[in-house]
Amino acid sequence: MMCPCCSSKTYDACCKSYLDGKQIPPTAEALMRSRYTAYSLANINYIADTMKEQALEGFDSKDAKAWAEQVQWQKLDVLNSHEQEDRATVEFRAYYVYNGKLQVMQENSVFRRILGRWYYIGTA
Ligand SMILES: [Zn+2]
Predict the structure, then answer these.
(1) Structural domain boundaries enclosing 40
(2) What total number of domains does the chain contain?
(3) d(CA 100, CA 8)
(4) Mean pLDDT in the chain?
């Protein structure tokens, strides 16, 4: 199967090792892509494990799982990606179908590297 994150690699060669916990994403963009893949597979444990700080406020695993199971993820476009030392931003557009309607989510996500590992911490 092709990786849901639209990298044009297979899932095995792309996000799988991150979701399986065998490797950690080397860049904020790789983490962002793997979180998109996790949403598309409704793997909310991975989503919860890769976020901190502001991003965790109001996050509810059950709600996130229910939502992820109701949407059909279509496509991910990474528009911009900047990394500077332990802070990064990744701007993306994610397309999904919810209640039969195509929706577009655009976000400039902020990431922080803590002890060598990238986390999603909120939006810019
Ligand atoms: Zn991927």
Answers:
(1) 16-123
(2) 1
(3) 26
(4) 96
Please report the pLDDT score of residue 115 as a whole number.
Answer: 96
Residues of the chain with pLDDT under 50: none
Which has the closest alpha carbon to 37: 84, 88, 78, 83? 78
Nearest one of 69, 66, 61, 54 to 111, comparing CA atoms: 54
Residues in the chain: 124
Tokens 């892509």 -> residue = 33
Instruction: Give the tens place of pLDDT for each residue, 39-62.
Output: 999 999 999 999 999 999 999 999
C-alpha 34 to ligand 1 mean position (Å): 6
Collapsed DSSP state (helix, strand, coil) of residue 119: strand
Which CATH number fits the domain that encloses residue 119?
A: 3.10.450.50
Residue 89 lies in a domain: yes
Cα–ligand 1 centroid distance for 4 (angstroms): 6
Distance (Å) from CA 54 to ligand 1 centroid: 25
Residue 54 is predicted with a pLDDT of: 94
